Every structure is written in structure tokens, then in C-alpha cells.
């Protein structure tokens, strides 16, 4: 059994050998690590979802502004 890739990060680098051993033999440590990994995965998914929503919001706001300008320009031409 290998350890999850989320545990391979700079914060844990100096403890990697200990992590590998404890993950395999210490149930409490494994559960803590698994909870950490699930949290990291969920956070990444939420970040991606937020970025996508944020980009869509920006596009929508930009389109609204462009259309406002077009409407005003059209009105100024016609009035």
C-alpha cells in the first residue's frame, strides 16, 4: 500500500520516511492523513468550481457592460 500523493508536499518533505512507516502501521495516523487528503481534494475541486463560476461571472458582467454601451449608443443615435 502506498501513501496518497497529497502527502507528498514541501511541508512534509523532511518527514517522508516517518510518514511512509506510520501510514502503514498506525491506524490513527492513517485516518488523520486520509482525512487530510480528502480535505485537500475537496478544496481543489471547490477552487476549480469557484474559478469557473468567477470566470463565468466576469464574462457575464463584461457582456452586460458592452450591451449597456450599445443600447446607449443606439439611443443617442436614434433620439
Walk me through the topology.
Elements lengths: L15 H10 L1 H52 L1
Helix pairs in contact: 1-2
Short description:
By secondary structure, the protein is mostly helical. The chain has two helices and no strands.
Descriptive notes:
The protein is mostly helical and 79 residues long. 78% of the residues lie in helices and 0% in strands. α1 packs across α2. The longest helix is centred in the middle third of the chain and has 52 residues, at 27-78. The chain is rod-shaped. The N and C termini lie far apart (75 Å). 0% of the residues are buried. The model has no long low-confidence stretch (mean pLDDT 94).
Short descriptors:
mainly alpha; 79 residues
Give the C-alpha Rg. Answer: 25 Å
Q: Tell me the total number of β-strands.
A: 0
Mean pLDDT: 94
- Unreliable residue runs: none
Biggest pleated sheet: none
Shape, per Cα inertia axes: rod-shaped
Strand/helix succession: HH
What fraction strand? Answer: under 5%
